[in-house]
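Hey, sorry to bother you again with one of my protein questions. A protein chain has come my way and I'm curious about its shape. I'm sending you its amino acid sequence along with the backbone structure tokens. I owe you a coffee for this, so here goes:
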Amino acid sequence: MKRQINFAEAESHGKKRGTRRERFLKEMESLVPWSRLIAAVEPYYPRASADGRLSDLSGCCA
């Protein structure tokens, strides 16, 4: 038989505190201008080709 919950339990039932990671990521979403960050990093980020190998192998001895 299920126990009936009281008002305090019902109010807090749908809410959870969140982990440190979740709180950190939520704060980062609001602070970081992601479009500018991606634009700054993208020229240096290696892209994979269709076969899954990195296309930019300038730093590698192939």
In short: The two ends are 67 Å apart (CA to CA). Residues 18-42 form one domain.
